[in-house]
Amino acid sequence: MNLQTTITQTSNKQSRTLPWGQLGIRSLALGYLTLMLIIPLLIILQDGLRQGFVEFWRQVTLPTAWHALKLTLWTSALMTVINIMMGTLTAFVLVRYEFPGKTILNGIIDLPLAIPTLVTGVMLVILFGPQEVLGSWLKEQFDFSVIYAPPGIILALLFLTFPFVVRSVQPVLMELDLAQERAAATLGAGGWTIFRRIILPPLTLPVVTGALLSFARAIGEFGSIVIVAGNIPFLSQTAAVYVFGEVESENRLGASAVSIVMVAIAYSLLMLADYLRKRSKSSKRELT
Amino acid sequence: MSVTISSHTTQTKEQSSLLTWMDKNKGKWTSWILIAIVVFYVAFLILTPITALAFGAFEKGIGEIISSLNQPDVFLAFWNTLWISLVVVTIHAIFGTLVAWVFVRHRFPGRNLINGLVDMPFAVSPVVAGYMLLLLFGRNGILAPVIEQLGIQVAFAMPGMLLATMFVTLPFMIRELIPVLEAFDTRQEKAAATLGANGWQTFWRVTFPALRWGMIYGITLTFARALGEFGAVLVIGGGVQGRTETATLFIYRALEERQYIGAYSAALVLGLFSLILVLGSDWLRRRKH
Q1: CA-based nearest distance B134→chain A, Å
Q2: For A179-214, what is each residue's pLDDT tens digit?
Q3: Are B37 and B106 in a shared domain?
Q4: So what's the pLDDT on residue B128?
Q5: Which of A53, B116, B192, B225 pairs with B173 at a CA distance of 20 to 30 A?
Q6: Which of B124, B127, B229 sits opposite A244 (nearest CB)?
Q7: Interchain pair A118, B230: CB under 8 A
Q8: How confident is the model at residue A131 (pLDDT cuts 50, 70, 90)?
Q9: Number of structural domains, chain B?
Q10: Domain for residue A4, yes or no?
């Protein structure tokens, strides 16, 4: 229905204004996107598959490449789990509680979006580097290294994706009707039951969307990771760093093959997030 | 604080059956524990590293910072970053608006598919972005003959770095503007048209002012992202000292060469610059509303 009206609206408009102007704008916009986006994405697909799927798969499953991909996936996944818990909790605290410094806290959430990721990496190295105070103490006391090891990767990813879950959950939490929670409380439900049965269900979708965005963003991260984790195969080399190394050593097929895998993962995650967002929008429309 | 807690307990006694779990919880320790967890987490994750950077840079005093940054190569690196970002922002301000407009107002086959692709640069690794351009414009690249004929160098030169930064920052402008355009009431445009305004006048006088804040925010985000771009520019530009080096590439090289003060202070300057940019536009927007 909605689509129908917009279609008639636009066709009305097109008949009134000059059609060639509209067409010109459209082809300009689409041409721009084709040049900037579609051609580069197709090139990498063509290059990685130019020697057939078997060779592509062989490049992806080379021990170093495979390990880099696995490391990228598990660190990103672990980061996403922490982000889901802490992001939801942060959004909850920001929406439901009043406390001194709340506005400042709310502002700090967005800082990672403003800080270049390379700078994030530098910050973490200063804090946890093997020659620094905290880093050497952790190493001596607990034999725990952050820098040039997976914990550093996870910390860097947590830093730069922190806003995603918070900002995705916050608006939904604000719109929640308190009457439902009051009703549940009147009927004798405890705090945890109310959270699980009343608050959590409507939050699932924004939490999942935010988590998917965090995950998608984390898969390709390079700037902070190359500083924090270095480039140690089988230990701290992530997929993006691996691709960089292969480009530098002119192993085109290997670089393209791993790139394709990364692009494919990113694309499917974004599509899933987009699909969930659209579904939530249409279900909202049905309700109102 | 103790006063508020006691006032709550008296309230609970008066109307205990009506009181909600939320209200009961207000003065309770659980809320304070949750607040404390969040505050500590944010302080640990975000504030501590930022503070560490400031300390790291100032470790040997401000004189050391100035002498490490006061070099022609460093100036050139920051200058490269600045003008690449400015050019990219200008191009995206124009074409981003155009793309957002077409997505909101036009219906055409493949629209949903392309709309999904617009977000790709957000998730595609910057390294892969730079590598794509290398495949196109590099020595054995597909477009290498064309480029040679034209006599311009794209890879390991400024044009390539511009393209790489453009790719990486593509979604921001478009994603900021689409919701604003969707919320915009087209009746205003129709009214303007009824009153005799032509298409261009309607856009300038009616639509553009409504888009202004979305544009400012989109520009800020694009700018901040362009300033901090590293991976894509490293792959396509090569980071040649004194030529294709940007601020982030300088930081990377300084770290490799163990010039820590130089790296830390450049990181501090770059971080502060983009922080001021984003916070400033946030502040402007909040003051406006």
Answers
A1: 9
A2: 888 888 888 888 788 888 888 888 999 999 999 999
A3: no
A4: 96
A5: B192
A6: B127
A7: yes
A8: confident
A9: 2
A10: no
Are both A37 and A176 inside the same structural domain?
A: no
Find chain B residues with C-beta within 8 A of A162's C-beta. Answer: 45-46
Q: What is the mean pLDDT of chain B?
A: 86
Tell me if A182 and B20 make a contact (CB, 8 A cut-off).
yes
Evaluate whether residue B1 is within a structural domain: no
Instruction: Note whether A32 and B95 are within 8 A (CB).
Output: yes
In angstroms, the Cα distances linking B261 to A116, A131, B82 are: 18, 14, 22
Q: What gap in Å lies between CA A244 and CA B130, rounded to an integer?
A: 10
Q: Which of B82, B133, B135 to mutate to test the interface with A (most CBs of A within 10 A)?
A: B135
Q: Looking at the structure, do residues A33 and A115 belong to the same domain, yes or no?
A: no
Characterize B192-202 residue by residue with b for buried, 16 or more Cβ atoms within 10 angstroms of its Cβ, and e for exposed.
Answer: bbeeebebeeb
Q: Dump pLDDT digits (tens) for B97-150.
A: 999 999 998 888 888 888 888 999 999 999 999 999 999 998 888 888 888 888
Mean pLDDT of A81-104: 92
Residues of chain B with pLDDT > 90: what percent? 50
Q: Which of B38, B137, B174, B250 to mutate to test the interface with A (most CBs of A within 10 A)?
A: B38
Contact A97 B35 (CB under 8 A): yes
- Whether residue A270 and residue B116 make contact (CB cut-off 8 A), yes or no, is yes
Output the pTM of the full model: 0.87
As a whole number of angstroms, the distance between CA B24 and CA B80 comes to: 58
* Mean pLDDT across A36-52: 91
pLDDT at A73 over 90: yes
> Which of A183, A177, A181, A174 lies closest to A206, judged by CA?
A174
Q: Is residue B67 part of a domain?
A: no
Q: Are residues A33 and A124 in the same domain?
A: no
Residues A192 and A274 in one domain: yes
Residues in chain B within 8 Å Cβ distance of A259: 125, 128, 131-132
Contacts of A220 in chain B (CB under 8 A): 123-128
Please give the interface size between A and B, counted as residue pairs whose CB atoms are below 8 Å apart.
267
For B99, the closest of A33, A220, A252 (CB atoms) is: A33
The verdict on A127 touching B (C-beta cutoff 8 Å) is yes
Closest residue in A to B50 (Cα–Cα): A123
Domain around A44 = 21-50
Instruction: Give the total number of structural domains in chain A.
Output: 2
Name the domain boundary from B60, B85, B107.
B60
Instruction: Provide the domain limits for residue B91.
Output: 72-288
Q: The tokens of A99 are what? A: 């406390």
- Same domain for B56 and B151? no
Alpha-carbon distances of B171 from A18, A34, A246, rounded to whole Å: 29, 14, 28
B19 pLDDT exceeds 60?
no
Tell me, yes or no, whether A28 and A145 share the same domain. no
- Is pLDDT at B24 greater than 60 in this prediction? no
The pLDDT score that the predictor gives to residue A68 is: 96
Q: Are A6 and B97 in contact (CB under 8 A)?
A: no
Q: In Å, how far is B11's CA from the nearest CA of chain A? A: 16
Residue A284 has pLDDT above 80, yes or no: no
CB neighbours of A39 closer than 8 A, spacing ≥ 6? B136
